[in-house]
Model the fold of this input.
Amino acid sequence: MTGRINAPDFALADTLQSGQAFRWNSDPDGGFVGVIGRQVWRLRQQRNLVLWEAADELDHAHQENMIRRYLGLDMDLATILATFPSDDGGLADAVRLHCGLRILRQDPWECLASFIASSTKQIVQIRQIVALLAQRHGDPLDSPWGVFHTFPHADKLAGLTEAALRDCKLGFRAKYLLAAARMVSDGSVRLDLVPSMEPAVAQAELMKIPGVGEKIASCALLFSCGFDAAFPIDIWIERALRRMYFPRKKKVNARQLRAFTRSYFGPYAGWAQQYLFCDERRRGRTKTTPSVTRRSAR
DNA sequence: AGCCAGGCTAAGA
DNA sequence: TCTTAGCATGGC
Done:
């Protein structure tokens, strides 16, 4: 089944490759193949259109709604951008350079589990871990593009041993993911209710899980639960914030950074964060003469 | 071949 | 309250 969605202000590649989701693979024709829910999808962009192909023949309108929601196409980007601080040239540049970047709305469990796996890992490694979890413990899904797998439910992972998770290269995160799976599946963490909670309550709910601190909770809240103001601060964002807003000021600690982001960026702070994140990484990539300019953040 | 990654926890100042 | 080691693994 195929379809097309009019999406004038959308950047598929930026959106799928900006470290929000870890299970999209690009194919040679500029498409991306991945799993949403229990289906394999192939997505492409042609100018103003998102072209989608789904492996299964289901209700067309339902399919289209699903993909629109997942890609964040049900949000009005212009309205969101208008809430950003108006006199911030640096942020405006980042927005311009990553025009059409959106926040995905992923499955909360897959998203939370992926970010539990992410700590002190590079994106390549996170992708490996998530792929292994799916291959070994998810259900196979046949498709025109090969066999893919669902991301295993919390119930499924809850029944595994820590050793089985370690075999998926989780390392010391294995016990965290196992605990998370158990807490979600036995109801001691109500992941299903998180999207409708007050932001602070939702964050506290996720942080009941060992291995989930502010950063990982923020990622899950922003990328899967609809909390557009959640503002995960990782190493890249920290670099961007210090460079743009605290130049050469020696002592700005994590707390002060957090306080700043909460008061400065507004109700869609998480979206601003994603633009800054992408741009900081772009800067890292486009640096010239790597032997000289390579410097870690102060 | 080390070094260091998109952190959290717990210990110690 | 703030700083820091330790954790496990792979890419560069």
